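seq:
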Amino acid sequence: MTHIDHQTMRRVLRREIAGTIGLLTDEHDFRAMRRYRSFTFDDHETYLQQVEALLKVRDAQGNHTTVALFDPLEYAEYCADKGLDPDLPASRTRFTAELATTGPSVPYEGQPLAALVPALVDEAIRQATWEYAATLLARRGACATCGADIGRASLARASILLDRIIDTAPAGSSHLVCSVSGTPEALVAVLHADDGADGIAQLDEAEVLEFTTVLAVGLATQSPGGLVMRTSAPGTPDRVYGWRLRGDRLEPLTAGEVFDAYCTDIESGDLISPESDVDYGAPPDLGEDKRLPGHRH
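struct:
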């Protein structure tokens, strides 16, 4: 086999290798990395420009790249745990490789960095929200009366409630928000759903997991909170409706309550003009009854 053949094969194999880039999304994290002599960038804006140029080159060559959120504090802790010198590029490479499977990341698909960075930050917030909510559920432990795992029972109940909310939604795309305010830190989860060609809602698994966990926290802790659904379909007004968390149940909001929630400024409390071509109404019946899984006494 000729030398050219070997080179060709290596180029083909190089296209088969998926890569990960650890991205410093803000100036504060960038400055934290500048304490390492082997980190040679002086300016955050220049650094971002060079990252974007590299992403474009890899994309043009047919290489898949995942962009992961690089946290300098986590990096320092990682190096301390592994006995690595944090001032070596090889250490950063090893940490970045693990980020692809454990940390917040998004695939690069040719989008500008100005769009990729907010998506990456949103993913980090979503992952942190899920981890915090899962911790709260785990801390509920077992019921002192019956021994049932409160967190597990609440997750089962939240999952069925979400299924019913999606199943009863009108055709089209849906935007669902769940907020829980009675926990040490307020929790918010967002879920998007679009009708597929077969009429079945297309959902992102990570969003479903986060949403279900946040809803389960509200049910398990019986904290104040609520859910608001907005549905959109061509040729029809958007529909907005919702529920409040009441104990371990969802209590339907009236059309007036939904209207007031949407047409009141959160910070000032002042009324704001309602959106045109939007119907504010009561939600469909979810068929809740005492047979729905959960933890009750």
